[in-house]
Amino acid sequence: MRGLILRSTGSWYEVATDNGKIYKGRLRGKIKLDGLKVTNPIAVGDYVQFELENETENTVVIHSIDNRENYIIRQSTHKKHHGHIIAANLDQTMLIATLGQPRTSLGFIDRFLVSAESFRIPSLIVFNKTDILSEEGLAFQQELCDLYESLGSICFQLSALQDPEFDRLWEHLNNKKTLIAGHSGVGKSTLLNRLSPHLDLATSEISDYSQKGVHTTTFATMYEVRPQTYLIDTPGIKELGLVAIPPEDLGHYFPEMRALLGLCKYHNCTHTNEPQCAVLKAVEAGKIALSRYESYLSMFSGEDNRK
After folding, report:
1. What is 247-301's CATH number?
2. Contact predicate 244/196, CB 8 Å
């Protein structure tokens, strides 16, 4: 039998079949993934092959995973040289970001976009909590939207608490599997509740002391909110370490740098200090945003700057 993983708790999985029946599954033995060291062999969004174990208790045994079309992976917070797959087989990602309470850094946004771009997964960026921004903050947010839309992302500026309609957002969510990600406290659960009130997900206030959110989602979970429309809620991501992207390939996942490939003097240019580097010239000319180039340097050097 074949099923879709809706939820992973580490040792048990919720598995849904095409006819809508949901089983509680466990893994038989160990599954090796070619070329990947991961802490979770099965992720939300995976399609798996399984067999019935106990019909009375609705339990099944998973024995294999179908080939993945793509996935979003981050460095494991527990094992330095391992990755953790956030979700697999996605149509797109939706990053929730805020410029205050808490602040999402541009470095974090860029790391997330690189992770998605490595599999050519389209990205939406939702700048939430516009209701708390000053005029200056709104102007800066608009500049960011202009920047990221010029690079191929689709941006939204909204308040999950105050905006009455999300029609434009729904246009991009219908009939797709969408991973929703972001720091704790940016409003992922609040936005999900507005999009699909029957979910009734727990939300939390921002700490006045730390100006950071508190985890309200423990495990990644996929919800079918409309027919063939799935939203994947994930625990808040504090850090996003890149996995399996060699430094020499990093520029391929920055669209504005990829457009200049082959124009540098040296074919193996790292775009850091080489003479006649097309990327450096574009940065100096303002054709590549300085914030994006700084993110590139941080990722290239492997700095522990993942927030």
Report:
1. 1.10.40.50
2. no
Q: Which amino acid, 61?
A: V
* CA neighbor of 299 nearest in space, from 161, 291, 220: 291
Q: DSSP 3-state assignment of 225? A: strand
CATH of domain 71-233: 3.40.50.300
At residue 221, the 3 state secondary structure works out as strand
Consecutive 10-residue averages of pLDDT for the chain (307 residues) = 91 91 88 74 94 90 94 82 90 97 94 95 97 97 98 97 90 97 91 87 50 51 93 83 88 97 94 97 98 96 63
**Closest of 123, 125, 124, 133 to residue 99, by C-alpha:** 133
DSSP codes, 155-198: EEE--TTT-S--HHHHHHHTTSEEEEE--TTSSHHHHHHHH-GG
Q: What is the pTM of this model?
A: 0.89
Find, among 144, 304, 163, 161, the residue nearest to 239 by Cα: 304
pLDDT at 32: 63
Quote the pLDDT of residue 235: 83
DSSP state letter for 209: T
The torsion defined by the Cα of 106, 108, 113 and 119, in degrees rounded to 10, comes to 160
Number of Cα atoms under 13 Å in the Cβ half of residue 229: 13
Q: How far apart are CA 159 and CA 99, in angstroms?
A: 12
Q: Which CATH number fits domain 2-65: 2.40.50.140, 3.40.50.10470, 3.90.1150.10, 2.40.10.340?
A: 2.40.50.140
